[in-house]
Amino acid sequence: QRSAVSSSKRSSLLRIVAVATATSGVVYSTDTGTRISMAIPEPFQISQSLINRTEQSLFGNLAAFSARVSPKPEAAASNDEKRAHVEDSDSVKPPSGGFLGRDTIANAAARIGPAVVNLSVPQGFHGITTGKSIGSGTIIDADGTILTCAHVVVDFQSIRQSSKGRVDVTLQDGRTFEGVVLNADLQSDIALVKINSKTPLPTAKLGFSSKLRPGDWVIAVGCPLSLQNTITAGIVSCVDRKSSDLGLRGTGREYLQTDCAINAGNSGGPLVNLDGEVIGVNIMKVLAADGLGFSVPIDSVSKIIEHFKKSGRVIRPWIGLKMIELNKMIIAQLKERYPMFPDVEKGILVPTVIPGSPADRAGFKPGDVVVRFDGKPLIEIMDDRVGQRIRVVVERSSKETVTLEVIPEEANPDM
After folding, report:
1. What's the CATH number for 110-195?
2. Rounded (5°) CA angle 90-96-101
3. Catalytic position from the list 136, 237, 267, 300
């Protein structure tokens, strides 16, 4: 009899091992029983030859769970107990400790979803419509203000003529509106669109991109390839990807890099954290690669919106310096090559001073290392202190410390 019971237990365990093996799980035992832990992936991939042979991947979360196997079978639960268990599971909060819950991503998508809209802009020539520009946007104010990309709603070649053009807006619930472009900034590729509604509009909450870390989970929401209400998930790959890394010379900007699936039509849509807050605006992807998408950080977008409200445009200071931000590695290399290089831990190297610029008139010289801008470690790119005097502390190769005063001018918006 003992042998039969032992054989029965071994058979049950073998069946469990087979299930765990089929689902890439792991089986281990303890002194008081047997514990099984397994992860069930649900991969599903489809390919479409719609735009540049873009591939789309639809995937499910990895659902990790563990089960306790008792030497004695448990009694079957009653229907009431099963119903109570289901009701309790719906109200369970995501587990703490950095783990994703079953509904974590779904809950974030549900919070942001109603505020995400589809944008369609008719394009034509001499009054003849030849096509449409399709993109996404996010309602950020109950008055109908929509945040999106400039390249979705305006013509970069003739922004002054088309910036007040018509924009067709479709909400998630199917309602349609005719919107107008309020503001557009080409350099940042950020724009605001306005619609008017007699009924309340759903709005999204803006978060803080400065709190992001590489590896944080995010979701992208929008209308890729005109497929409305599409949600993709991924992680933050880099929080400060330089525009120079992407070959975008002269812009001096930083982007959030993610591996969320982003395609044509996602432009202008929100990048969202697991709290359902907008932490970026999806702006572009690398066509020749998978999982390389880029977003404008919401902290930068918030400053742009402030400029729009205050001046109707983004005001950027210009002093006429080409600058290279220094780090410890670059400083070590420069000191090894040039023994007279200033003894600094950080700063901005000035390789070029534009003749006739405010910096040239203030006395900047090529090779200067800027260590303080008006008491700040680095110049505030989005600062609007045009016409205001700024004190700058400079270290020179001759071990000389110089304080200069420069008055920024407004940068040419067409540059």
Report:
1. 2.40.10.10
2. 40
3. 267
User: What residue spans define the domains of the chain?
Assistant: 110-195, 209-311, 317-410
Catalytic one of 185, 189, 368, 384: 189
Map tokens 């999806």 to a residue.
282
Q: Under a CB-based contact definition with an 8 Å cutoff, are residues 230 and 282 in contact? A: no
CATH fourth-level superfamily of 209-311: Trypsin-like serine proteases (2.40.10.10)
- Is 85 a known active-site residue? no
Which residue carries 């919401």 as its tokens?
Answer: 298
Give the whole-angstrom CA distance, residue 407 versus residue 412: 16
Which class would CATH give 317-410? mainly beta
Active site residue 189: yes
Amino acid of residue 253: R
Query: pTM higher than 0.90, yes or no?
Result: no
Residue-by-residue DSSP string for 214-249? TT-EEEEEE-GGG-SSEEEEEEEEEEEEEGGGGT-T
The answer for residues whose C-beta is within 8 angstroms of residue 194's C-beta and 6 or more apart is 143, 144, 145, 146, 179, 180, 182
216 is catalytic: no
pLDDT digits (tens, 9 = 90+) for 298-336: 999 999 999 999 888 888 888 888 888 888 899 999 988
Domain 110-195 and domain 317-410 have a common topology:
no
Q: Bin 226: left if φ > 0, else alpha if -120 < ψ < 50, else beta.
A: left
Question: pLDDT tens across 154-189, in order?
Answer: 875 554 444 456 899 999 999 999 999 999 998 889
